[in-house]
Design a protein that fits this description.
By secondary structure, the chain is α+β, with helices and mostly antiparallel strands. It is built from two helices and three strands; from the N terminus they run αβαββ. A three-stranded antiparallel β-sheet has the order 1-3-2, with helices on one face. α1 (4-18) crosses α2 (33-41).
Length: 70
């Protein structure tokens, strides 16, 4: 129990490391509180609410962290 956020964070970082992707969008059904908490704990930020296939979903975003300017 409690591994969901760790798996989400590690998989998201791996996607950034292996691709040119800079942002990941996740859509969580509004009544799925456990998934919402796991994504938030993994570092995703809430971006709003949208409708997908007639269902309300919370839109979450995870952005690749920059390496900083040198």
């Amino acid at each position: 129990k409690g591994l969901g956020s760790t798996i989400i964070q590690l998989a998201s970082q791996k996607l950034f490391d292996l691709t040119e992707i800079n942002v990941i969008h996740a859509y969580i059904k509004q009544n799925n509180e456990a998934s919402f908490r796991a994504f938030m704990k993994a570092g995703y930020k809430e971006s709003g609410v949208t409708t997908i296939s007639g269902h309300q979903a919370v839109h979450l975003i995870f952005q690749k962290q920059g390496r900083g300017k040198r």
